[in-house]
Design a protein that fits this description.
single chain, mainly alpha, 6 helices, elongated
Length: about 120
């Protein structure tokens, strides 16, 4: 932020500007995290389709789906903090699989045990 902006605006306006900047930066970080998680899931699916669906492969895929669901949840929450309420555009734009949408916001059991023990 330029020094001139601070000199010519009320402190509350400067604070509002800085909050808006941080919201936008967080929005970008959450979007990139979602893209990365979805890419990892797609790469796994492309590679795993060649091999058999072993129990360990199913578990690894489930972990990737959960990771993508968490990233989706974080992105949706950040969008809503920015005033963007309709999440349907995200699902279309990012080609979010239904199974990822269904586990959005769900914490894995290990995370819940850790939180309860804290």
């Amino acid at each position: 932020m330029s020094r001139d902006f601070r000199l010519h605006h009320a402190p509350v306006d400067v604070l509002a500007y800085e909050i808006a900047q941080e919201k936008a930066a967080a929005f970008g970080r959450m979007g990139r995290a979602l893209e990365t998680a979805l890419a990892k899931l797609r790469e796994f699916d492309a590679a795993d389709s060649r091999s058999g669906a072993t129990a360990s492969a199913r578990e690894a895929r489930r972990a990737l789906v959960m990771e993508a669901g968490h990233a989706l949840w974080m992105f949706v929450v950040q969008r809503e903090a920015c005033g963007l309420r309709d999440s349907r555009a995200i699902m279309r734009t990012y080609h979010v699989p239904g199974e990822v949408q269904q586990c959005m916001g769900v914490l894995p059991a290990t995370s819940m045990r850790t939180a309860n023990n804290a």
